[in-house]
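Deliverable D5.2: sample structural annotation.
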Amino acid sequence: MRRPVACSCVGVGLVALGLVAIAAPATAAPHDKVTICHADSDVKKPYVEETVDVDSIVLPDGTLTGHSLHTGPIFPGADWGDIIPVFDYTNSGGGISTYPGLNATARRVSSTL
């Protein structure tokens, strides 16, 4: 699902404080899908909220793929990257592994979002 907005994970608190913090603690149940802020090239709406398959971020064997390779800094840095929360997923052995997140810590960003 694509939603061309200033991503909710970069919401009102970001504008007020100039900070973004994503708190998505790992849980016991693995996820099949995860909502991310996908980097867009539009400086007026630098992120698009998308709900994507976990396999588009990390494969069951732990190989990083797709969105996890969009590793630039958060907006307004040059070639900004995706913002992905921490989440659990089912690994290839049937156990639970944790994806550590990408750009998911408090960072200073422009209040122009």
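Annotation notes: The helical segments are 12-17. The chain has one helix and seven strands.
The annotation will be released with the project's public dataset once the embargo ends.
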